[in-house]
Amino acid sequence: MLVLLASIGSMMLRLTGIQQAGSSTAILGSRAHFAARSGIEWGLRSAIAAGTCPAASTTLSLAEGALSGFSVVVTCSASTHVEGTRTRTHLALRAHAEFASAGAPDHVVREVGASIVL
């Protein structure tokens, strides 16, 4: 009986640890999503101010608040097309947010995209 109770207790401790790791990963994933959205917002603001892509690729290192430790790579590609008598510029932005290095237990990656026509 004692062995049975010990194994049930051990199993419950293990399940608790797995559940805590899962919720920690979910929180990191949510933070990664918002880090990627921050990159998109930076790219859109820069593109609107410049009238074109800010750069082909820019790396942002976030160091404030809940997004501290995230690295965000923002890429932009531009194409032009004629619409009636006006020439329009289409910008496609992608933001790739990453926390920790690949293989680390807390490694998360999220990618967000957006496009705008100027």
Cα end-to-end separation: 74 Å
Give the strand order, joined by hyphens, for the main sheet.
1-2-3-4
Integer tally of domains: 1
Helix run count:
1
List strands and helices in order, with pairings.
Layout: H1 2-50, E1 57-61, E2 70-83, E3 86-99, E4 108-117
Antiparallel strand pairs: 1-2, 2-3, 3-4
Structure write-up:
By secondary structure, the chain is an alpha+beta fold. It has one domain. Helices cover 42% and strands 36% of the residues. A four-stranded antiparallel beta sheet has the order 1-2-3-4. The longest helix has 49 residues, at 2-50. The chain starts with a helix and ends with a strand.
Question: What labels describe this entry?
Answer:
alpha+beta, four-stranded antiparallel β-sheet
Quick summary of this structure?
The chain has 118 residues and is an alpha+beta fold.
